[in-house]
Amino acid sequence: MSRPPLMSVPHAANAETGPAPPETDPARAAGRVVADVLADLGGGHRGVVVDSPPGAGKSTLVVRAAAHLAAAGERLMIVAQTNEQVDDLIDRLAGKHPEVPLGRLSASGYAPSDRVRAHPAVRVAQKADDLAGQTVVIATAAKWATLQDGSWPWAIVDEAYQMRSDMLLRIAGRFERALFVGDPGQLDPFSTVEVERWAGLSWDPMRSAVSVLLAHNPDLPVHRLPVSWRLPASAAPVVSDAFYPFTGFQAGTREGDRRLEFGARGMGTTYDRALEEAAATGWALYELPARHTLRTDAEAVQATAALAVRLLQRGPVAHSEQGTAGVDAARVAIGAAHRDQVAAIRAALGPHGAGITVDTANRLQGREYDVTVVLHPLSGRRDATAFHLESGRLCVLASRHRHACVVVARAGIPELLDAHPSTEPVRLGVPVKFPDGWEANQSVLAHLAAHRVPAG
Amino acid sequence: MSALSALARLEAVRAGRAQPVATVRHVHIADAPLVLVPLKLAGEAAAPLAVMAGAAPDAPSLLIVPQPRNRDQRFAFAASLARLVLNHVETHRGEVEELPGKDGEVRLRYGDAPQLLVPNRGGVRFLRLLGRSTRFRSTEGAYAVDAAVPVLGRWLTWFADRHDHPGSSLLGAATELLRLHWATGQSSLEDGNLAALMGWIDPPDGLDGPSAAALAEDPVRWPPAGPATDPTFDNEVLAPAIAAYDRSGGDARARERLRAAIETQVTPTWELMWRAVGLLRALPEAAGVARRWERDRDAFTHYHQTFGEAYPQARRDPPVRAARRLHDLERAQEAYEAQRAFDDPLVMAEQRLTGAAFGGVVTECHPERLDETGKRPKLRPLLRVATGDPVRLEPGTPVCSAARPALKGRIVEIGGGGVLVELTGGLGRRLVPEAGVVPVEGDRVCFTSRTEGSFGIARFPDREDTPWTHGGPPEDYVPTADDAREDWS
Amino acid sequence: MTETAPDLDRLRGGAAPRNHDARTIAALTANPGCARRGVMDAAGVDKDAVARALGFPAPFGQSQFAITRGNVFEQQVKADGCAELLTLLREGLGLDVPEVAYDDLETVAGNEGRELRHIRTRRLLARALETGEGTLFDHPLLRLDIGGRPAYLEPDVIAFQFAGRFHVIEIKSFAVVDGQAEPEQVAAAARQSAVYVLALRDLVAELGHDPERVSHEVFLVCPENFSNRPAATPVDVRPQLAVLRRQLARLTRIDDILAELPADLTFAPGERLAEAVRTVEARYAPECMAGCEMAFFCRDEARACGATGALGRSVRDDLGGLDTIGTALALADGDLDPAADLAETAAQLRLASLLRAEALENAEARRAAEAPPAPAAAPAAAIPESRAS
Fold it and tell me: In the predicted model, what is the mean pLDDT of chain C?
């Protein structure tokens, strides 16, 4: 290994300015883990697992590891979960390491995106044979699963906690060794059918790829990236305590490193106050009066959309270790639990909100924005279901932002949690899932309570 | 659940009677289904106490285990039940159809298949466990059982597995089948009681739903539909009768008294089962039922024909089997849900309510519009549909027609109480649409974004290629002497 | 509002408080939002007796076959100083259990009270914690603070000391078939075990030791497959422990509810019992029928006032939290002008109603067209003769 074990330049530069004690220096701590991971790739293990909390440099690691293996002369396949993720990785890898011959394997209907077309050296093909000369071949898991033969000495599996183990079963024959990278705190994979017949089996096809992998190969090295470069100092401890209580992580930046300012003055509306609270502290809870509602609670939908639009109207400017830049619609996202909520919010945004990403937690996984507005999954509910309480859902929603997160909710969620019956069935041999959704929700709410802005 | 089915429940409360949640029957009902009403001994996993069984309402057979803790009696019972079930299986194969198969071979499909009906989910679970407890038994050696017993075990296991398969009608639970078609004015938990559920759907003369359901909760008037028995019956009737039978040393009269006591517990459910069959049969069959029953017949044909070559089903699925099965189930689930909505406007209404589909009248139609932006012109008719539905779809979303799912299109714009749809498929091969394919002005249409077919055929490794990530190839399952000797006490 | 809240003894009408056991404590987590249940449990009211007095007896009878089976299995596992259990721990779980001592804390000489038996448990466990001696402690009589008052737990578990830690062993007679058991039964067992773990941890802490010496991993001993042979399965009860701690902590908030109640309120039998019970609000859901003695009374009450919740939590949620069936139907029919905060729910119900009507009318018309003289769709007409049989 010849490269210095540092994550990326801006963070390193930032680290040099601070006199932080060595053991807590985020860049060094992260760099050490990356070095360990790269060392393990040459250590004769069949698999290496890297847990990455939100924004901890997972993609950077994938690019580093890919280049590292390619430099060592290994042919390599990269497995991502969606076409979007494949294109993202191609863009990063081709941008950073144009010398590595790169191929994109895709289904017949695929039209290369702008990000892929920006790198003419990248070969796009439908058959693996046409990419035989490429050192690195990237495709979705679904595409890899269509291959009947061919074998790569190495694979990198990205978002491995979001991949179901039955998919891993279908593609594992294509590689000899693999690096699995993913975020254990995000949403677990799910199935459209409810069948209990595989409960407790170490190869339960509904479990995540990583949990099945580790159940059968308990001695594989597992690393944890210790620093979130995305989440600001105001958010990392909150997300870490709520969703990663045992492993934990720290923010890569310190208090004051990031600032959100508004170009336009507010008019003192409750929207403005919520946005100002979020800009000042990183969080705001915009609280509507307690009421039980339909999922597509019009008032909450309206408030969610209006907050995002108002944010853009205020001309937000983000200052960070990466410099100063205006926050435009592309840097703002709205997250919700259900698809019908997403559709209603999109409709409510109107032309002023054009370009703002609105999506469900499932589809926001792995994405990053400057500011997010979140419709709380439990807002307006009288009874919480397992779906609403799933810790991964709230974790995704509360960890997409670099600067600030505004949560919209009706009052009464603490009472709802308080009254929640705990009668979940227990299946023998199924590992207990941590953190518990109830506890995680409680923990986040307790923090948000200090940032409450009642709707006017 | 949805607002639509919630509303149906409210309407049932108001009417004092169950309300339809389907306009057609989504399940196959055989001409002569084998109805099974099983009872088990309380406190045991699957110790059978009795089964009332038969393929006609007036011809029930009641098989009992006079001393359920006696293993010889249990196996004798299993052998009797085996003869009954296997006879039904063998006599319900129908004519054999010959179909063109792969590589020019002929593929067979039985013209019919056996259908088993039990009162509730508990009944399915009981059959599954009974299958599990009998399929490994050996027909020779120290614990030999009748040759039919392990055969029964394998068939019951197969039926229970098919029950997991969305859209299969081979093994049905009456409560589930009824709930697919009616909503009651009580909770779904209470719907698990077959007598209460039937009370709402078809109350006896002089009663309404709530009063019939209230009576149904009295275990003296309506004994539980099994497999669990009423504890009071156990303590006051069954236990003394079994004790008397034991004391008598197997006396025929004691046995008859025991049998009569048990008969009082299963007969009401037996009658309910046939009334439920009658109610379901009276509904017009949905278009997709025959197609799904064909899949059931395929599965039956395959299992029947390969029965002799196969081992009993393993205790748990090995990795590849599990992954394959999950894929099959998810595929079947998607197809089943899509078909039910296509077949039944009341099911489609759920999608319309949530904005995933929309229905209305065609107000504008350009059936012969061509898209000439590409190299070659393409037939792309345009339709404008006036709708009051809360459409929650984006322009560009692919949709298909509920009346004819092959007719495909995509949304161009939404607004002003209407949706503009561009038709893209199912129009024929020429540049003019086939007659009657494109709806005309004034037609009622319904388009949905929920289309089937997102699950293609999937490729799985062979069992011997199970990868290291999943523990490598599992050992081949071969039944062992231990399996056959497993205690059944 | 009253000046003095009713004291808990008056609520019971002078009757002795009902003893808690692991099952009743575990049940506190089943519907924590229910004030009625909270008050009655905090006061130790005999809910079963109250329900019977109200004419809604709880149908929680147990079959003697199940009872016998449970007893026989437990005796078999514990026979000869827990010989089978030890084999199981050693061979089934691969634990290297050295020499064994078995202490039954139930069989003390004479007819001792619970206090004395608890003291004996304390003494033996204290010695075990100090010296590491002792392996199996059967029927430990433990104590747990419930709403500020100590409750003794009916002791039906074994405390198993191994490698310096205590594990709770719970013997249940439901079957584990091919490694799996009924998830609801396992959940109930896990909740009960968690109660014992918590009580045991309290005791260990009182004795000046690290409460973590009581493991969150309990062993569930059940019959294997269809036999009487026991099998042990480790169960991680951390989630149940967390829930239990939470609910025990909030039991003290019952005081707030009590403060709102009339000072002369009592659940003593009598003409005014029903009225008294209704004074404390219930949060009925159909799931209550699985575990609360009051459920049938509360269901009747919920149905009588047309509560949507009686149809199920999810039904109520699908109705946007609308409380009453009458209102929901009036909105669906378009007979009621909705208040602003109900406009959205009203619109959805109205649309649902129209969609249902459209689909049903079309189906009716189609059926009429296809089979002109067919009898009306009333299902009764379509039933075969079987009903007469």
Answer: 85
Mutate which: A296, A428, A445, vs C, most C CBs within 10 A: A428
| pLDDT-based confidence at residue C219 (cuts at 50, 70, 90) | very high
Is the CB of B189 inside 8 Å of chain C's CB atoms?
Answer: yes
Check if CATH label 3.90.320 holds for domain C64-249. Answer: yes
Residues of chain B with pLDDT under 50: none
Question: B228-251 in b/e burial notation, b at 16+ Cβ within 10 A?
Answer: bbbbebbbebbeebbeebeeeeee
Residue-averaged pLDDT of chain B: 93
Option in C233, C243, C313 nearest A422 (CB) = C243
Secondary structure of residue A374 in the 3-state scheme: strand
pLDDT, position C3: 45
- CB-based contact, B321 to chain A, within 8 Å: no
Average pLDDT by stretches of 10, chain A with 456 residues = 34 38 75 95 94 94 95 93 92 94 90 90 92 94 92 95 96 96 91 90 95 96 96 96 91 93 93 97 97 92 97 96 94 95 91 93 92 96 88 96 97 90 88 88 95 93
Asked whether residue C28 carries a pLDDT value surpassing 90, the answer given is no
Question: C294-348 pLDDT, tens per residue?
Answer: 999 999 999 999 999 999 998 998 898 899 999 999 999 999 888 888 888 999 9
Domain parsing of chain C, residue ranges: 5-61+251-318, 64-249, 325-364
Residue C292 · residue C30 · CB < 8 Å = yes
* ipTM confidence score: 0.90
pLDDT at B487: 61
Of all residues in chain C, what percent carry a pLDDT higher than 90? 44
Q: Does B333 touch chain A (CB under 8 A)?
A: yes
Cβ–Cβ gap B7/C362 under 8 Å: no
Q: Does domain B341-448 have CATH number 2.40.30?
A: yes
Helix runs in A72-172, H state only: 83-96, 114-117, 141-144, 165-171
How far is Cα B323 from Cα B470, in angstroms, rounded to an integer? Answer: 11
> Residue B451: what pLDDT?
80
Q: How far is C95 from chain B (nearest CA, A)?
A: 24
Give the contacts of C13 (CB within 8 A, at least 6 positions apart): C266, C267, C268, C269
Q: Which chains touch C (3 or more CB pairs under 8 A)?
A: A, B
Q: What is the pLDDT of residues B379-430, one digit of tens each?
A: 999 999 999 998 988 889 999 999 999 999 999 999 888 999 999 998 888 8
3-state DSSP of chain B: CCHHHHHHHHHHHHHCCCEECCCCECCCCCCCCEEEEEEECCCCCCCEEEEEEECCCCCCEEEECCCCCCHHHHHHHHHHHHHHHHHHHHHCCCCEEEEECHHHCEEEEECCCCCEEECCHHHHHHHHHHHHHHCCCCCCCCCCCCCHHHHHHHHHHHHHHHHCCCCCCCEEEHHHHHHCCEECCCCHHHHCCHHHHHHHHCCCCCCCHHHHHHHHCCCCCCCCCCCCCCHHHHHHHHHHHHHHHHHHCCCHHHHHHHHHHHHHHHHHHHHHHHHHHHHHHHCCECHHHHHHHHHHHHHHHHHHHHHHHCCCCCCCCCHHHHHHHHHHHHHHHHHHHHHHHHHCHHHHHHHHHHCCEEEEEEEEEECCCEECCCCCCEECCEEEEECCCCCCCCCCCEEEECCCCCCEEEEEEEECCEEEEEEEECCCCCCCCCCCCCCCCCCEEEEECCCCCCCCCCCCCCHHHCCHHHCCCCCCCCCCHHHHHCCCC
Do the beta carbons of residue B226 and residue B123 sit within 8 Å?
yes
Where are the domains positioned within chain B?
A: 3-315, 341-448
